Amino acid sequence: MPTPTTNSGSDILGRYYTRSDISSFLVDQFDVISPVRILDLGAGSGSLSDAAKTRWPDIKVLTVDIDPKAALPDTSKSKAPGDVYHKHFVIDALCKDLSSVLNCANAPIDVAICNPPFITPKWRSEFGAILEEAGFLDCLPFPADVDAGLLFLAQNIRLMSDNATLGIILPDSLITAKKYKKFRAVLLSSYVVTKVIQLPRGSFHHTDALASIVILQKTKKIQDTVRIHCLTRDKELSEPLFVELSCAAERLDYSFHFHRLHVGNKTSHKKISLQEVAIDIRRGSLSSSKVKKADFPVLHITDIKEKDIGRWLDFSSFESKKPDDSSVVVKAQPGDILISRVGRNLDSKIVGVMAGTFAISDCVYVIRCAPHTRGRVLAQIASEEGRAWISAHAYGVAAKQLAKKELINFPILLEEYKDF
C-alpha cells in the first residue's frame, strides 16, 4: 500500500505490533472448537498466528504480509507430503485477487485473525470492489479516504467461507467516530457481531493507541443486542453490557455505554444541554502552524495544566500589547471556560478565565456563559462525573478528540446556579 498516512508510534507501514498476551487473549475469544484453516492478513511478526497455533496445534495457517522482511514462518513441517502446516505469502493483503492466490474456493477459511495497520492508504480502484463485495461501499461518506482497518475487515469477510468467524483489532476511529456511524449500522445488520472488547492503552508495543477487538461471524442470523466488554489494565475482562443495535451503531466502545447506562442515569434531577445554557461555544481559530508564526501570544493546550483543573486563573500574561490582532481571531475573555479539544488527557484540562483577553489555538474550546451560570457550569464540567462524561464521549486512536457536536450535549443539572 504505497504512500500511506501513518500514525505516530507505528512503523513505516502503519503497523502497531500486538503484545503476545493480547494476541493470546484475542484467540481465546473464539468459540470455535476445531477450526481447520486460519488466515492472518498483515501478519507482521506473527504474534496472532503464533497464538492461534498454540491453541489449535493442528490448524493450517495462512499468513500474508506485503513486507518481504517480515519474519517468515517455518513452513518445512507438514503432517503428510504436500500437507503444509503453515504457508506464508509475500503479497499485498488488499489485492483484489487474493482469493485466487490463497485458493479459498477449494480450501475454505473458517477462522480469520487480523491486526490491520493503522493508516489511511492511498486509494486504489480495487478498494471499491473489496468494500462493495463486503457491503460497505455505500455507507462511507468519503470512500477514497477510508481507514485501512475497514479495508482489512472487508477483505477478510470476502475471503472467509460462510459461517466463518473473524477476530479483528479495529482502531478507535472505526469504533467511535461519527463519520463511521453508517458503517457500524451496516456491519451490525449484515453480520453477527458476537462481542466487542475495548482494549486498554499499552496493548501494542511502543504506543498508547486505542483499539477494540471485534469478533464477528459471516452469517445472516438476526441479533437484537451486542455484547460489549472492556479489558482492564490488569488484563481482566469486564462483565458484559448488552447494547441494542441502534445504540451500538452510535458507538461500540464500552466506556461510552457504561457511562450512558450507569453513570449518566444515577441522578433523578432534570438536565439540560450545555448548548441551552451557554451563550457561545466555539473552538479557537489558529492552527498549530499559525500559532508558531504569530507575533502575539496564543494560548495552546500545553498552557493549560492538569493541576489547575476547575480553577479560575489569571491569563493576563497572554494579552497582546497590539491594538487589534485580527477581527477573525477567536479570543477568550474573563468569565470564559476553556476546555482542551484534543490530547490524551483532554478531560483534565478544564479551567476558567479570571483575567485576560487573548487568542486561543484551535485545540481549545471556549465556552461563554451568563455571569450567574458560569461558576456552576465550570464546576460540573470539571467534576469527577463531568470528566468521566468527556472521556466517554471523546474518541481517537492516539490523541483523543472531543467533537463540538458532543460537547454541546454535555448534561447540565437544572438547579440554582451560583454567581461567579
Widest sheet: strand order? Answer: 6-3-2-7-9-11-10-12-13
Query: How many helical stretches?
Result: 14
Number of strands: 23
Strand content: 15-25%
**Unreliable parts:** 1-15, 416-420
Q: How would the global form be characterised?
A: elongated
Q: What's the helix and strand layout?
A:
Layout (H helix, E strand, L loop, with lengths): L4 E2 L13 H9 L8 E5 L5 H9 L4 E6 L12 E3 L2 E2 L1 E5 L7 H5 L8 E4 L4 E2 L4 H10 L13 H12 L5 E7 H5 L4 H10 L1 E7 L12 E7 L7 E6 L10 E4 H6 L3 H10 L7 E3 H4 L2 E4 L4 H6 L4 E2 L12 E3 L16 E2 L4 E4 L9 E6 L2 E3 L3 E5 L2 H12 L1 H10 L10 H4 L3 E3 L7
Parallel strand pairs: 2-3, 2-7, 3-6, 7-9, 10-12, 16-21, 17-20
Antiparallel strand pairs: 1-8, 4-5, 9-11, 10-11, 12-13, 14-23, 15-22, 18-21, 19-20, 19-22
Helix pairs in contact: 1-2, 4-5, 9-13
Description of the structure:
It contains 14 helices and 23 strands. Helix 1 (20-28) packs across helix 2. Strands 6-3-2-7-9-11-10-12-13 form a nine-stranded mixed β-sheet, with helices on both faces. Strands 15-22-19-20-17 form a five-stranded mixed β-sheet, with helices on one face. Helix content is 27%, strand content 23%. The protein is elongated, with a radius of gyration of 24 Å. It has 420 residues and is α/β, with parallel strands linked by helices.
